[in-house]
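Input record, target 12 of the design panel.
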């Protein structure tokens, strides 16, 4: 049953989200071509997706190319615990965006519901200081969809199906970006 649901969700992604995925890839390429960086963040499985996508950009997916600047704001336990303790969990990504984000960078917030308070806070600040913003979300997009330059809303109400689609979309974004930056043989 889960496998069939996963396939059906990805078929809906294929049917409805290809233009949004292409726009997100174009935005990523534009940001990286201009020498800016990508900041990614989310909670739980979305934190893992943030790390996975950042690693694909910094490392590589399939082809030889230069390293691309991407940082998952979910990986520094000292920052996360200190910020959570001193400012509250809602500020753990916002403070890092304030410290690391610069005009022209790209913030990618990942939230299956689109309503994670710490993701919303970080996106609000990112916009305020001049970052471009993208959301990977699901369900109805939540509050997050209305805050970003581009929302990719997976058409599902199931957290696990949304997460499965998010990492697939992340891989597709990385493939498109990588093909732009591929080195000649």
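The sequence produced for target 12 reads:
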């Amino acid at each position: 049953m889960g496998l069939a649901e996963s396939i059906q969700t990805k078929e809906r992604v294929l049917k409805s989200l290809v233009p949004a995925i292409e726009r997100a890839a174009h935005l990523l390429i534009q940001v990286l071509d201009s020498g800016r960086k990508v900041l990614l963040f989310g909670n739980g499985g979305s934190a893992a997706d943030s790390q996975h996508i950042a690693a694909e950009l910094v490392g590589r997916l399939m082809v030889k190319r230069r390293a691309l600047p991407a940082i998952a704001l979910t990986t520094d336990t000292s920052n996360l615990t200190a910020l959570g303790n001193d400012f509250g969990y809602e500020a753990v990504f916002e403070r890092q965006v304030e410290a690391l984000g610069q005009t022209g960078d790209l913030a990618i917030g990942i939230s299956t519901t689109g309503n994670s308070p710490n993701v919303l806070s970080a996106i609000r600040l990112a916009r305020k200081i001049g970052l471009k913003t993208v959301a990977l979300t699901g369900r109805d997009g939540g509050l997050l969809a209305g805050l970003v330059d581009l929302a990719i809303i997976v058409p599902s109400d199931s957290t696990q199906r949304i997460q499965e689609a998010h990492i697939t979309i992340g891989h597709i974004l990385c493939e498109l970006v990588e093909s732009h930056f591929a080195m000649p043989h």
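The domain at 22-181 is CATH 3.40.50.10490 (Rossmann fold).
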